[in-house]
Amino acid sequence: MDAVRRDRIPRLARGHDNATGLMDTHGLRELYDLVLRLSAVHDLDALVQEVVDHARRLLGVDVAYLALAEPDGSLVIRVTDGSLGPRLRGVVLPPHSGLAGRVADTGEPVQSADYLGDAALTHLGDVDRVAEDEGLRTILGVPLRLRGKVAGVLMVSQRAVRRFTAAESSLLTSLGSFAAIAIENAKLVTALGAANDRLERAVRLHDRLLAVALHGGAAEDVVVPLSELVPGLVVVADEHDEVRAAARDGVPVDAVLDGTPSAWFADPAARRTHVGDKTITVPVASANAYFGALQVVLAAPLDDAEVRLLERAAMTVALVASVERAVTDAERRTAGELLEQLVTRRVRDEPAFTRRARSLGLDLRRPHLAVVTPDLEALPRLRELAARHGGLVTTVDGQAVGVLRADEATVRAAELGTTGLAGPATGASALADAYDDASACVRVLEALGRTGSTATPDDLGPYRYLLGQAGRDDASAFVGRTLAPLLAHDEDRGTDLVRTAEVFLRCGRRKSAAAEALTIHPNTLYQRLDRITALLGEDWQDGDRALDVQLALRLHRLRRELS
User: Taking Cα atoms as reference points, which of 196, 189, 9, 155 lies closest to residue 68?
Assistant: First the structure.
């Protein structure tokens, strides 16, 4: 590709993460802007030409072309960009034939590295001769899906062998999905004509809703203009039937849902417009996910055009929600990988790492708390804290981990379950140390039976010495000085005098309670206590000596559980 041609390819075509195969967030935002421009084109011929022109530029390919489905199942190539002559335009692809037929049959992207030599595809002589005249080798085709059906196929081709990446396939698929909606809108405008003012306003409203969704508008920005056109109360709810916004006659109002759409639409096969006596409810869903519902509590019957408007609005919101969820997941994975690299001390180039962290919202120059909890149900609350105060959240070794700008009181108030806190700390190395301390706090809390509690190292009293190697060495020396004869006896003879002594002291030296806790006969307990007294001395149960023995016994147990 010459330099001029490469410069014409937008950044979007090159904005991929080669390590993960994911489009970057900036690239997806550029796709949004492109889709918004397409949605404003209502002339069908001009629209499909725009689609193939953009497809060719986005992926930097030799040829792009688009085929629309006919009622008999065939596909007709309507427009091309980059072809050597007119023969490609107008080619009819019979059902189930060629690469386009495979895309139409499966509804999934299909790629062939060498089309003419691909024995896995059903070839037709006339079509292959056109491909040979054009010199087409590698072809990637994606579906134009609409309401679960394939309305056409968007294809790009290279005259040399090329392997399209998963990110490029995903990019072209996203463009095809948006193009399907834009084509449907253009067909609707063509069919109804510009003379129908009400439907023309509906089309303009649809464009407005798409613009709102693409630019991150709130739910109110959807229902308020929609309620100006649709007679009745318009409500948008999420997948849990929580009302996000409601409006009537263009004015926001408080409202509740009529019924439980999440139950109605739980089965993907049942995700179609639900008509009740007083309501019309449309699922906001993609092929694989349910995002919520759009409901109208009717003030007057809706005609077919108004119902179709609701369905198109719900479909557009669902498509954008799906793409935005993919963006969020990609950002979350990237942030999670960075945070895991930080806490597991795999930072090799700290200045570069610091710059990358800052781009994801983690400024290592500022103090952050390290937060660790084994309760994964706390992840949403941790993410809320990160969104509100700054920081990153991920999972490491099966635990929820956050590095947050929030203060200690705020984190405690979030009630995250058994939680270790450490810091605040600044810089990669100090934050890794804080993570180690917070993780150790969790282990100590669990070993002490204080599940559900939140603790910093300072909250652990004498047990905080188990968090560092020097402290563990000191604790080991103290345990050895205090319990050496008892430990040696258990080691040499396989007895359990250490646990017996700990349980006895924990039960307040009440023999019956200790025997029950140990599930042994009282006489057995008496014999063990006599043996312990012989090993530790007569005063092991009394005064300061009893405190030393009890502390040493607990430190010994915690040492083993934390090792």
Answer: 155
The model's pTM: 0.39
Which stretches of 369-468 are DSSP H helices? 379-389, 408-413, 428-447
Residue with tokens 């069908």: 44
CA distances from 52 to 63, 120, 162, 207, 274 (A): 9, 26, 19, 21, 36
Strands 243-248 and 419-425: unpaired
User: Of 424, 411, 412, 420, which is closest to residue 368 (Cα–Cα)?
Assistant: 424
Calpha distance 374→352 (Å, rounded): 31
Using N-to-C axis directions, what is the helix angle for 522-536 and 497-506, rounded to 10°? 100
Quote the DSSP letter at residue 462. Answer: G
Rounded-to-integer distance, Cα 137 and Cα 365, Å: 52
Q: Are strands 454-455 and 419-425 parallel, antiparallel or unpaired?
A: parallel
Per-residue pLDDT tens digits for 477-519: 777 777 888 888 878 888 888 888 888 878 888 888 888 888 8
Tally the C-alpha atoms within 13 A of residue 179's C-alpha that lie toward its C-beta: 30
Sequence-ordered alpha helix ranges (H) in 41-107: 44-59, 98-106
